[in-house]
């Protein structure tokens, strides 16, 4: 699990995972187009993601495709978040989202419906 947390600590690697979530099975070239970094830098990030088992690769001819493996993320969810009450976390998330919406400059005068469920 340490490798997963290490891999998730970097915003570029999280971006790579987000891109694979959007469109799974991308080549190195496709992923490089989405990030403002060299092929070598993207390759290094992908190696770390592979070592953490967050990305799996498949060769199709001469092309290496990268696929998101959500299993380690699910394990973290079950171990670290699952032990807390989901309803409380959902309520806090709703509250945070509502407060962020009211702090948007174009929505300062708009009313936001923030429901607070049993937080205590």
Number of helices: 6
Task: Enumerate the strands of the largest sheet in spatial order, edge to edge or round the barrel.
Answer: 1-3-2
| H-E order | HHEHHEEHH
> What is the total tally of β strands?
3
Biggest β-sheet: count, sense, barrel? 3 strands, antiparallel
Distance between the termini: 30 Å
Mean pLDDT: 85
Structural class: mainly alpha
The stretches of 5 or more residues where confidence is low (pLDDT under 50) are: 107-120
Overall helicity:
55-70%
* Share in β-strands: 5-15%
Question: What form results from the Cα inertia axes?
Answer: globular
Instruction: Using the CA coordinates, give the radius of gyration.
Output: 19 Å
Write the layout of secondary structure elements.
Layout: H1 2-8, H2 11-22, E1 26-27, H3 28-34, H4 39-51, E2 55-60, E3 63-68, H5 71-81, H6 86-102
Antiparallel strand pairs: 1-3, 2-3
Features:
single chain, 120 residues, mainly alpha, 6 helices, 56% helix
Descriptive report:
This protein is mainly alpha-helical. It is built from 6 helices and 3 strands; from the N terminus they run ααβααββαα. The chain has a 3-stranded antiparallel beta sheet. Strand 2 (55-60) and strand 3 form a beta hairpin. The model is unreliable at 107-120 (pLDDT under 50).
């Amino acid at each position: 699990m340490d490798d997963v947390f290490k891999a998730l600590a970097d915003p570029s690697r999280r971006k790579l995972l987000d891109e694979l979530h959007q469109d799974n099975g991308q080549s190195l070239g496709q992923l490089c187009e989405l990030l403002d970094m060299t092929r070598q830098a993207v390759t290094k990030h992908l190696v770390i993601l592979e070592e953490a088992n967050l990305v799996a690769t498949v060769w199709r001819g001469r092309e290496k495709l990268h696929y998101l493996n959500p299993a380690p993320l699910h394990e973290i969810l079950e171990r670290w978040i699952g032990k807390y009450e989901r309803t409380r976390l959902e309520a806090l998330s709703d509250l945070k989202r509502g407060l962020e919406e009211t702090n948007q400059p174009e929505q300062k005068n708009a009313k936001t419906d923030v429901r607070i469920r049993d937080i205590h």
